[in-house]
């Protein structure tokens, strides 16, 4: 038995074919974006694991060298903040980087894109239902301030590591931490600037078009 004719005119058949093609490409685009997202997440997880291993190796190496060089043990027990303030030698610099990296992962976890997305979500939830007023802008501002505080701990230690041993694995490990923090700050400031310049409408439009920095996965 022949199939019944659904589209009886040439124009109707053309429109049906165009609609079928549109649905096909829309589905293909969705699947491709989902594949890219999974790849991005896996990449960030691997980078975080490599970063952790590099810093751990650098700290162990520096502390071992310090034990070999020192003839007398240091009896002065100092806190992490004291070590960051002094930065008198390579071990103290690497310890400062390690402590900052631990605090960074507690705050941001291993994915700056997800962190920025979550902060944006918190801000959106703070917007009144009638959208007549802005949301709580301090949500983004406070996160930026916390990350910039971590950056202020990393940069001096990274500079001292450069002075002690040049462009080395230890310096690259420190640079990975500072790059991670700078990227996260850039994602949040991108949201801030759009909200301040164009309000909720501008921020919404950029988000729908996928134009926010964290949506593109741009690294600073």
What would your notes on this structure say?
By secondary structure, the chain is mainly α. Helices cover 78% and strands 0% of the residues. The protein has seven helices and no strands. It has helices at residues 10-69, 80-86, 90-108, 112-125, 138-165, 169-208, 213-216. α1 (10-69) packs antiparallel against α3 (90-108), α1 packs antiparallel against α6 (169-208) and α4 (112-125) packs parallel to α6. 25% of the residues are buried. Mean pLDDT is 77; it is low at 69-80.
Task: Annotate the secondary structure layout.
Elements: H1 10-69, H2 80-86, H3 90-108, H4 112-125, H5 138-165, H6 169-208, H7 213-216
Helix pairs in contact: 1-3, 1-6, 2-3, 3-5, 3-6, 4-6, 5-6
What would the keywords be for this entry?
single chain; 220 residues; mainly alpha; 7 helices; 78% helix; elongated
Helices and strands, in order, run as HHHHHHH
pLDDT < 50 runs, ≥5 residues: 69-80
- Shape summary: elongated
Kindly state the number of beta strands: 0
Overall helicity: over 70%
Average of pLDDT = 77
In terms of DSSP E residues, the strand content is under 5%
What's the N-to-C terminus distance? 64 Å
Radius of gyration: 25 Å
User: Mind summarizing the main beta sheet?
Assistant: none
Counting helices, strands and paired strands, the structural category is mainly alpha
What's the helix count?
7
């Amino acid at each position: 038995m022949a199939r019944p004719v659904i589209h009886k005119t040439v124009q109707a058949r053309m429109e049906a074919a165009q609609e079928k093609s549109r649905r096909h490409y829309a589905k293909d685009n969705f699947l491709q974006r989902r594949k890219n997202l999974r790849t991005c997440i896996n990449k960030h997880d691997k980078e975080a694991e490599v970063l952790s291993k590099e810093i751990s190796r650098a700290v162990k190496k520096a502390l071992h060298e310090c034990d070999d060089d020192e003839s007398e043990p240091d009896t002065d027990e100092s806190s992490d903040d004291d070590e960051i303030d002094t930065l008198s030698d390579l071990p103290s610099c690497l310890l400062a980087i390690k402590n900052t990296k631990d605090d960074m992962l507690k705050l941001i976890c291993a994915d700056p894109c997800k962190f920025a997305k979550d902060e944006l979500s918190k801000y959106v939830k703070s917007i009144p239902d009638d959208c007549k007023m802005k949301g709580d802008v301090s949500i983004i501002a406070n996160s930026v301030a916390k990350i910039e505080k971590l950056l202020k701990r990393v940069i001096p230690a990274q500079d001292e590591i450069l002075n002690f041993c040049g462009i080395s694995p230890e310096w690259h490990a420190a640079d990975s931490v500072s790059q991670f923090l700078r990227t996260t700050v850039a994602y949040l400031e991108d949201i801030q600037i759009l909200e301040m310049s164009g309000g909720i409408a501008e921020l919404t439009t950029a988000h729908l078009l996928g134009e926010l920095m964290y949506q593109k996965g741009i690294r600073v």
